[in-house]
Amino acid sequence: MKLVDKALVIPCSANDEKDFFLRWVEYLKPRHHLTTREQEVFAAFLRNRYELSKGITDKAILDEVCLNEANRDKIRQSLNMSGPQMNGVLSKLRERKIIAPSRKPNGKVDYYVISPSFIPDIDESGDFKLMFIFRYKSDAEKGNSATNS
C-alpha cells in the first residue's frame, strides 16, 4: 500500500504565521466548536507558544510559561480585549478541553496547558505535516468482514 496517494502543499511565510495558526484553529472547528473571536484568541495562544518554543526547549517550562498571566495579558492587549472578555474565552477553552489544568500534588491548579492534540507539530525545517488515513469499506465489505471474523 502506498503511504500517500495525494499531497497538497500549502506555502506559508513568516509574514503568514498569524494566518497559519488561525487557519489551523479554523480547520479544527469540528473538534472545538469555538466562535470566531474564541478562535482568534486560541490561534494567538498557539502562535505565542510557537514563538516561545524557539527559545524554550524544555517542554515542561514551555507549558508552564505559555499561558502564564504575563502572556495572557500580552495577548489580551494585542487583541484589544477587556479582562472579563479574556476570562470568558479562557473559560470556554477549559470547557472545551482545549486547555487543561496542571495540578500541584495538593490538587490545586498550578498552571494551564494547551492540550497536545491541538498543537501543530512544526518540525525544525518549518514543515507541518498532517496525514489522514481513511479506511473505506463499503457496506457489503463490512458485512463480509463481520461474517468472516
Model description:
The protein is built from 7 helices and 2 strands. By secondary structure, it is mostly helical. The chain has one domain (14-119): Orthogonal Bundle (Arc Repressor Mutant, subunit A). It has a two-stranded antiparallel ribbon with strand order 1-2. Helix 3 (36-53) runs antiparallel to helix 4, helix 3 packs across helix 5 and helix 3 crosses helix 6. The chain is globular and about 55 Å long.
Rg from Cα = 19 Å
The major sheet is characterized as: 2 strands, antiparallel
Strand order of the largest sheet: 1-2
Strand content: 5-15%
The N- to C-terminal Cα distance equals 23 Å
Helical segment tally? Answer: 7
Number of strands: 2
What is the 3D shape? Answer: globular
Give the integer mean of the pLDDT values. Answer: 83
Give helix and strand order, one letter per element, not per position: HHHHHHEEH
> Can you identify the CATH class?
Mainly Alpha
Low-confidence stretches: none
- What is the architecture at the second tier of CATH? Orthogonal Bundle
Structural key phrases:
single chain, 7 helices, globular, two-stranded antiparallel sheet, Arc Repressor Mutant, subunit A, 149 residues, mainly alpha, 50% helix
Give the secondary structure arrangement, pairings included.
Blueprint: H1 17-27, H2 29-32, H3 36-53, H4 59-66, H5 69-78, H6 83-95, E1 99-103, E2 109-114, H7 139-148
Antiparallel strand pairs: 1-2
Helix pairs in contact: 1-3, 3-4, 3-5, 3-6
Question: Quick recap of the structure?
Answer:
By secondary structure, the protein is mainly alpha-helical. 50% of the residues lie in helices and 7% in strands.
